[in-house]
Specification:
The chain is of the alpha/beta class and 299 residues long. The chain has one domain: 3-Layer(aba) Sandwich (Rossmann fold), CATH 3.40.50. The chain is 35% helix and 19% strand. The chain contains seven helices and eleven strands. Strand 7 and strand 8 form a beta hairpin.
């Protein structure tokens, strides 16, 4: 049985991009439920950002509403500076802002491809860069980038080569930053959610395919509606000090459970490192790619 007490973040301060809706909103609230204060960042047009802040404040935690664009380094640096001023520090950063759409590759305009890369990839890089500028002097911090299962698989029937490519790049970017910053006190991980019933997945190409029974393996009615047992648990686990937990997950297709424990360079399931997914596409964790880099043990 899941218990929030296993993942307490009391006294820690978090910064979440894309906090106005979907997985980002769920994660921001989940961090507050675990005891963290949360700076919530999204575009100014986000209708859900005030609701996120109000919900967090209703939990008795300090919430800061911040607006800007993840493609703007100036916006991010300003928002993080305000976050540190208001909350006192930056311990955890979750980069969740992103977009999705679909167009056949042969007909895709270059500006559509470029916009996807600007937000989903460059936006994550700029976010990590701004967060690291605050974390590196303190020699501690955890950055978690929200990628997608589409970064390691291809979604049957969805013409989204640009989206898949951007998420694959986020996974490798996270590995690269983990290597660069691990010896300087910052852990960088990525989490790759499967289909989740969020506003972004209400777009026509998703609704038509997964409500019609076109794909019997992934009916939309079966998608998780609650993040508390999917993305939220993975994020809270990644926020913990390295070496604190062992995580037991079902390895799809193998019929057995393996113990996942952090080593200096990777996560190991039993005697092998492999791709792991929770059943029904709830969450996909690329265990080889989600690097803990736990040589530095944080208090």
């Amino acid at each position: 049985m899941f218990s929030m007490e296993w993942f307490r973040l009391d006294g820690q301060n978090a910064f979440v991009t894309g906090a106005g809706s979907g997985i980002g909103q769920g994660i921001a609230i989940g961090l507050a439920q675990a005891g963290a204060n949360v700076a919530c960042f999204d575009v100014s047009a986000s209708a859900g950002l005030p609701a996120t802040v109000n919900h967090i404040q209703g939990l008795g935690r300090h919430a800061v509403r911040l607006t800007g664009d993840v493609t703007s380094a100036a916006d991010l640096h300003s928002a993080i500076a305000t976050s540190v001023t208001e909350l006192g520090s930056l311990d955890v950063a979750i980069n969740c802002a992103g977009i999705a759409n679909a167009t056949p590759a042969e007909a895709m305009p270059l500006d559509q491809w470029q916009r996807m890369m600007d937000i989903n990839l460059t936006g994550v890089f700029l976010s990590c860069q701004a967060e690291a500028h605050v974390m590196l002097p303190r020699k501690r911090g955890s950055i978690i980038n929200i990628a997608s299962m589409s970064g390691v698989i291809v979604n049957r029937g969805l013409t989204q080569a640009h989206y898949n490519s951007s998420k694959a790049a986020v996974i490798h970017l996270s590995k690269s930053l983990a290597m660069e910053w691990s010896d300087r006190g910052i852990r960088v991980n990525s989490i790759s959610p499967g289909y989740t019933l969020t506003p972004m997945n209400q777009r026509p190409e998703i609704c038509c395919r997964y409500t019609s029974g076109a794909d019997r393996h992934s009916r939309r009615d079966d998608w998780p509606r609650s993040l508390s047992r999917q993305s939220g648990i993975c994020v809270l686990y990644r926020c913990q000090s390295p070496g604190r937990w062992r995580l037991r997950l079902l390895v799809k297709g193998t019929g057995h459970r393996g113990t996942v424990q952090p080593t200096s360079t990777r996560f190991v399931i039993g005697s092998s490192t492999r791709l792991m997914t929770a059943w029904r596409g709830s969450i996909l964790l690329n265990v080889a790619d989600v690097i803990s880099r736990s040589r530095n043990r944080f208090p």
